[in-house]
């Protein structure tokens, strides 16, 4: 590996503004031994702080799959060529909260390894979760090639880009030590009814908290599941809203019951510029 730690993120569309990239840069800077470089592959570089190297996000190169849930645009990271970048890179999603030093994510394993967090939603299967992963750029170009050859077929078979990638890496994937990377919904928030009783707990010993599939850290700070949800109204009011479709945060009552979170103040201590 080179001395400079290379970190990648992607930003496309309107879901995340430049403040997410700027916040990620600040969290990394507080929790890494320099030198490092954050590279943002994006279609909208406006407003991103100058310390971040912005490059045009490559085109997918094929029709986007339909009827699937995966973030298939991320498959471009596996191209044989990626905006002239090379070497080893650590990819981090914009909705990730960094709690502690991340140097170990660069030193763990071999530079040739593809290393991910375990997919905690399916712990009995060897599936990776791509909120934070390290890989050698250009080494698994077949992943993008095969996707472009049959995007809908790949999507129908795997449903999520992270499942496709998990099954496609030559030589197989590896996982970070379990205590490093925690899943907000599973490890911090907990299941119903616990999320109605207590605030999401701080994951002691963790270095990173990921938010795959939502909610967003910027929303749970204020006790919301989505930006469109009403201001925090407490567990009883949320439960009562189950019986009034006009007040639900989701049309389906079962999902509405799950989409509850008390304000999480400890996120403010880490998720900021």
List the defining traits of the structure above.
25% helix, 10 strands, 273 residues, alpha/beta, Spore Coat Polysaccharide Biosynthesis Protein SpsA, Chain A
Question: SSE layout and pairings?
Answer:
Blueprint: E1 5-11, H1 18-30, E2 36-42, E3 53-56, E4 88-92, E5 97-98, H2 104-107, E6 115-118, E7 128-136, H3 142-149, H4 151-158, H5 161-168, E8 174-175, E9 181-183, H6 184-189, H7 194-197, E10 208-210, H8 217-220, H9 234-241, H10 253-258
Helix pairs in contact: 3-4, 4-5
What does this structure look like?
- By secondary structure, this protein is α/β, with parallel strands linked by helices.
- The protein folds into 2 domains: 5-175, Alpha-Beta Complex (Spore Coat Polysaccharide Biosynthesis Protein SpsA, Chain A), CATH 3.90.550.10; 181-269, no CATH class.
- The chain has 10 helices and 10 strands.
- The protein has helices at 18-30, 104-107, 142-149, 151-158, 161-168, 184-189, 194-197, 217-220, 234-241, 253-258; strands spanning 5-11, 36-42, 53-56, 88-92, 97-98, 115-118, 128-136, 174-175, 181-183, 208-210.
- Strands 3-2-1-4-7-6-8 form a 7-stranded mixed beta sheet, with helices on both faces. A 3-stranded mixed beta sheet has the order 5-10-9.
- Helix 1 (18-30) links the parallel strand 1 (5-11) and strand 2 (36-42).
- Helix 3 crosses helix 4 (151-158) and helix 4 (151-158) crosses helix 5 (161-168).
- The longest helix has 13 residues, at 18-30.
- The radius of gyration is 19 Å and the shape is globular.
- The two termini are 28 Å apart.
- The model has no long low-confidence stretch (mean pLDDT 94).
């Amino acid at each position: 590996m080179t001395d400079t730690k290379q970190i990648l993120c992607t930003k496309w569309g309107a879901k995340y503004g430049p403040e997410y990239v700027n916040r990620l840069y600040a969290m990394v800077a507080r929790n890494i031994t320099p030198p490092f470089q954050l590279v943002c592959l994006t279609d909208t570089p406006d407003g991103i702080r100058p310390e971040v190297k912005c490059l045009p996000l490559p085109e997918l190169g094929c029709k986007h799959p339909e009827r699937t849930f995966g973030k298939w645009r991320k498959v471009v990271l596996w191209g044989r060529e990626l905006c002239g970048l090379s070497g080893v890179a650590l990819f981090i999603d914009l909705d990730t909260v960094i709690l502690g030093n991340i140097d170990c994510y660069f030193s763990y394993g071999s530079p040739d390894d593809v290393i991910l967090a375990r997919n905690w939603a399916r712990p009995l299967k060897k599936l990776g979760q791509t909120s934070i992963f390290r890989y050698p750029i250009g080494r698994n170009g077949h992943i993008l090639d095969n996707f472009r050859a049959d995007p809908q077929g790949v999507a129908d078979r795997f449903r999520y880009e992270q499942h496709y990638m998990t099954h496609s890496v030559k030589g197989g994937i590896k996982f970070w030590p379990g205590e490093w990377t925690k899943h907000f919904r599973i490890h911090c928030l907990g299941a119903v009814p616990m999320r109605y009783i207590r605030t999401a707990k701080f994951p002691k010993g963790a270095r990173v908290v990921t938010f795959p599939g939502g909610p967003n850290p910027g929303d749970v700070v204020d006790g919301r599941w989505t930006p469109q949800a009403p201001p925090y109204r407490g567990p009883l009011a949320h439960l009562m809203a189950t019986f009034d479709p006009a007040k639900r945060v989701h049309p389906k009552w079962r999902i509405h019951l799950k989409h509850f979170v008390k304000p999480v103040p400890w996120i403010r201590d880490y998720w900021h510029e």
